[in-house]
Every structure is written in C-alpha cells, then in structure tokens.
Amino acid sequence: MTAPHPEGASHSPLEVFSSCHAHTLHQCEALQRLVLYLGQCAPNAQTLRVSQDLLAYFDTLLGQNHAQEETWLYPALLESMAGSDAVCLRDMASGLTRQHRLLESMWRGLRDQVAAIAAGRDAPSVISDVDQFVRLNRRHIESEEEELLPMALRLIPDSALEHLREMTHVH
C-alpha cells in the first residue's frame, strides 16, 4: 500500500492505517466540495484534476486499505486474543468488514458521475449520495480510530506488528 508519509520516515503499521484514514477523510471532503462547486459553476481544469485524483484514490488506494485491514489487522487483533472470548472483537471486525463492502458499493454508484466530471462532461447532481457516502466513511473511520486502533495498539504484540509491517511493506 502506498501511504502518504514523508520519504524515509518509519511508521508503525497502525500509524499508516491512521494516515490512510486521514487521507480518506480529505478525499471525502474534496468530493463534497467538488459536487457543491459543480452545482454552481461549470467544469474547469481544476474540477477535472480533482475528479481524476478522486478516481485514482477511491478506485485503488481505498480498496487496498480495506483489504489490508481485513487480511492483516483484524486477524492480528483476533490472534492477540487467542484463548480468550473474542466475540466482541469478531463482531467488530465483521461489522467493519460489512461497512467496507457497503462503502465500496456506494463508491461504484458514484464513480460514473465522477468519471463524467473527469472527462469534462456534466454529471447529474449526486449531493445526497455523496453526503451519505461521506457520513458512512466518517462513522467507519471514527470506529476504527477510536476503538479498533487503540485496542490493536494495546493488544497486538510488537512481534506481530513487526510482521504486519513486513507484510504491508511499511518501512
């Protein structure tokens, strides 16, 4: 996963997930601003660039972040509870995974309109769809930032975090 962080900086995998969350929120805000702007003004070079950036992010990096959380973070957290009753963790991971699928589905519904903007064509107003997408992203990220990542920091042993760093190519 390519995460936004300074070249040469070493970040823990949990910091990278958090950084990806911040980047997702930034992209959500850009999507909202784009839709509001296009409700008042015609497409221009800046709206084309912003829409192309949104396509690049939501088409690739968001799905990669979801996949890495589901493949490495959630299992590492569950493994840290081996021998314990981890029902609440399994329920949390399952709920967050369902939210990933919903967010990805919602993006597919918005993608054609953003692609039209990126191609310089007018797109139908999708403000309510965008607002719903952004609200769910915010709630999802809030859950991961306030519940999941702090729990992972407390429970996942350093050796597992190091393995996670190697698996996600975070150096």
Could you estimate the helical fraction of the residues in percent?
over 70%
Give the number of helices.
5
Q: What is the terminal separation in angstroms?
A: 11 Å
Query: How many separate structural domains?
Result: 1
Low-confidence residue ranges: 1-9
In what range is the share of β-strand residues? under 5%
Average pLDDT taken over every residue? 86
- What is the CATH class designation? Mainly Alpha
Q: Tell me about the biggest sheet?
A: none
Order of helices and strands: HHHHH
Oligomer, anyone? Answer: single chain
Rounded Rg: 18 Å
C-alpha geometry: elongated
Given the helix and strand composition, which structural class is it? mainly alpha
Q: What is the CATH superfamily classification?
A: nmb1532 protein domain like
Count every beta strand, where a strand is a DSSP E run of 2 or more residues.
Answer: 0
CATH architecture: Up-down Bundle
CATH topology assignment = Four Helix Bundle (Hemerythrin (Met), subunit A)
Q: What does this protein look like?
A:
By secondary structure, the protein is mainly alpha-helical. The protein has one domain: Four Helix Bundle (Hemerythrin (Met), subunit A) (Up-down Bundle). 78% of the residues lie in helices and 0% in strands. The protein is built from five helices and no strands. Helix 1 (13-38) runs antiparallel to helix 2, helix 2 (45-80) packs antiparallel against helix 3 and helix 3 (87-118) packs antiparallel against helix 4 (127-155).
